[in-house]
Amino acid sequence: MNAKKKRRLAFAAALLAAGCVLAGVIVYGLGQNTMYFRSPTDVADKQVSEGVAFRLGGLVEKGSVRHGAGADVRFRVTDGKSTIAADYNGVLPALFREGQGVVATGSMDARGTFVATEVLAKHDEKYMPPEVVAALKRSGRWQEGSQ
Amino acid sequence: MTGELGQLSLCFALALALVMAVSGLMGTRPADFAARRIAAGSAMGLLVFVALAFGTLTYAFIVSDFSIFDVASNSHTLKPLVYKISGVWANHEGSMLLWVLVLSIYAAIVAGLQRGGERLTSGALGVQGLVAAAFLLFIIFTSNPFLRLDPAPFEGAGMNPLLQDPGLAMHPPMLYAGYVGLSASFAYAAAALLVGEEGWARAARPFMLTAWIALTCGIALGSWWAYYELGWGGFWFWDPVENASLMPWLIATALLHSALATEKSGAFRTWSLLLAIAGFSLSLIGTFLVRSGVLSSVHAFASDPTRGFFIMVLIALAIGGALALFAWRAPTLQGGAAFDVQSRETMLLLNNVFLVAACACVFVGTLYPLVLDAINGTKISVGPPYFALTFAPIFFALLLLVPLGPQLNWKRGDLKAAWRTLYPALGLAGIAALAMVAMVSPRSVAATGAFAVAGWLIGASILDIRKRKGARASAFAAALAHAGLGISLMGVAGTTLWRSEALTVLAPGQIMTVGPYILRFDGVTRERGPNYIADRGHIALMDGGRVGTTLLPEHRFYPAENQDMNDTAIHTTGWRDLYLALGDDRGGGRFTLRAYVSPLAPLIWLGGLVMALGGGLSLWGRLRVKELEPKPAAPATALAAE
Q1: pLDDT at B283 over 50
Q2: Cβ A67–B584 below 8 Å, yes or no?
Q3: Average pLDDT for residues B471-486, to the nearest whole number?
Q4: CB B234 within 8 A of CB B384
Q5: Cβ distance B197 to B119 under 8 Å?
Q6: By the CB < 8 Å criterion, does B158 face chain A?
Q7: Do the chains contact at B338 and A29, CB–CB below 8 Å?
Q8: How much is the average pLDDT of A12-32?
Q9: Which of A8, B1, B273, B274 is the most exposed place for a label (fewest CB within 10 A)?
């Protein structure tokens, strides 16, 4: 085996090792940092453990938004079948409205309330987050052309 | 009438694109001069007809011709003129037409410059013709911007207020100039595989540079827009749509470096071809992600499944075809030239390894949720911590190596000599690190590391510029671009690590503090814009008991679109941003107010601008001295200055 071949082999081995490390880091990173999307019905049906972060999506129930002291906000998220109470401390996005779609990141607390760390509202009236549409379809509350 | 003119122009453009594809590919045969002339001519014709179609659509938007469906559903008579024009590409149909317009501009330039010889140019035009024809078919059959609406409505439906913004008016054309610019390098690479021409890297260089500059500016603009428009104070959210533009940028950066080696020393011949193919493939995937409606974002205009399917077929054909061509022809090309371990090529190799690895992390993080959803309907999202864990360390390691490359010669370099040039930069890095340890409490490893590396990058760039004093301007391009990385890094570190935020409900006259600032809320007034009504908050920035500046964040309501939007107010000293967003009306004149202080935030975009300037300098040098430069056979020492 000549020197050039040897170097090529060493290079290929190094690249392979680096690729394995990269794959390992990616798999580990994905395992640690993926969040499931759940509809209120998913939360009601399946046991969601306390403190595990996930994304909750549905409609903001009409008449459910209550402002507390400071920047505390309470509202309920519904998909027509089930409804989950949510707590949020922060400024709601400008697009947040009762009766319209919302996606919130957070986790359940011991009382069965969803504590949101981030609230995203849909971007405009023509547009609904695809996850919310899917959740509404599953609960049978989606009407084509209603939006 | 305008609609029919546009429609007709599109059909002519499609015909010319097909002619260009066939004649261009035929023109790769050595003696087929006629085909080559036809290809070049049809490139010009394509530009004329696509521009005519685009101009027609723009005219329809300006005069609010609501008999055209696209105009009626995306425009409004009360919209300011500039947003009527930017409205042309703020919707799916128009933005696809802009895509083809940019493509035909590049094709006309390729035809006009005839870089790299007649046969190579002809092949490149042929490939561009294929791409243009595919996109024109896509427009005509699934996304026709000239569809009529009968009867025409009295008023249009308006445009998403988030998009009614000067930064975002320029963002899509910039990004498209980048995406589609990569199609030119792709076309040259495919042509080089067909013709077996060696000089493609050199011929395609100005297009790679243009694409890279445009992508850099487009990403910076998009991030700046997200910063001041979305009202969250963040500059990058690892949103799939942002990632869709970051991935081509990473590959374009890798391509710029690898193709330089191919051109100057003959290394990485096949690898550069592969990168050119990958770069455009990622542009196509980006277009698919953004335009097909699979992602939830402000960009997802369309959720028509036929469109997504069409783009998917297009991607499969482009990537599959190019890779098949590569597999067939690459083995016949001459292998890459050899180089020493201590050489610029080695550094560029490491650059490419790190950039491609970083891109792979972003790719997996972006597409994994889509793939999982397609397989079993599980809906997940991958959060920013994933990218912080995978992308950040790889990119950080890359930054450590950046200063070494320009100090090593091609083929055979000398690390000791590079070290003799660079050690003062290490001093600067040490000073930056010590300053962080002394000033920042509690001590932060991240801050120390980030500023040390920023000092290393900027210091090395200054040394590089000093070393090259008197050389032509383009010799400073790399130093400038690398310094831009350091500047951006400081901005990113400053904003991420030291941002303070405050959130309070305030009644008029009340005071709030955030970071070093004291703010007094002076109430809200009702204002009327051209097409919105706004609650305008008056917030006085107190300066030792006196009122300094007044900031005016707004909460706007757009009646035509029935939509609310925040207009943030930013007070910047250049080193620090004070950022205010007016929140909900809490009754009795009380409002929630959100304030952020972001140290060094402006540096993020300043760094991007410096990088783009570096690219611009290199491009300018390329176009100016194209006749003077020798063929790439010159001795290594003469090339070291490049």
Answers
A1: yes
A2: yes
A3: 90
A4: no
A5: yes
A6: no
A7: no
A8: 90
A9: B1
What B6-10 contacts at long range (C-beta under 8 Å, 24+ apart), as own/partner pairs, is B6/B52, B6/B53, B6/B56, B6/B57, B6/B60, B6/B145, B6/B146, B7/B144, B7/B146, B9/B49, B9/B50, B9/B52, B9/B53, B9/B56, B10/B49, B10/B50, B10/B53, B10/B136, B10/B139, B10/B140, B10/B144, B10/B146
Q: Which two tokens stand for residue B376?
A: 């079993």
Contact B88, B96 (CB under 8 A): no
Q: What is the ipTM of this complex?
A: 0.80
Length of chain A: 147
What are the pLDDT digits (tens) for B106-139? Answer: 999 999 999 988 899 999 999 999 999 999 999 9
State the Cα–Cα distance between residues B352 and B355, nearest whole angstrom.
Answer: 5
What pLDDT does B442 receive?
A: 74
User: Mean of the pLDDT values across residues A95-110?
Assistant: 84
Top pLDDT among B598 and B301 is at B598
Instruction: Give the pLDDT score at B626.
Output: 54
- Report the C-alpha gap between B129 and B127 in whole angstroms: 5
Contact A34 B382 (CB under 8 A): yes
Distance in angstroms (rounded) separating the CA atoms of residues B318 and B132: 12
In chain B, residues 259-288 whose CB comes closer than 8 Å to chain A? none
Q: Between A and B, how many CB-CB pairs are < 8 A?
A: 109
Contact across the interface for B555 and A94, Cβ inside 8 Å? yes
Cβ contact A70–B293 (<8 Å): no
Residue of A nearest to B160 (CA): A124
Smallest Cβ–Cβ distance between A22 and the set B357, B566, B581 belongs to B357
pLDDT of residue B333: 79
CATH 2.40.50.140 applies to domain A37-138: yes
Which chain B residues are Cβ-neighbours of A36 within 8 angstroms?
378-380
How many angstroms separate the CA atoms of B404 and B343, rounded?
10
**Cα(A122)–Cα(A129) distance, integer angstroms:** 6
Do residues B191 and B120 make contact, with C-beta atoms less than 8 angstroms apart?
Answer: yes
At A135 the pLDDT is 67
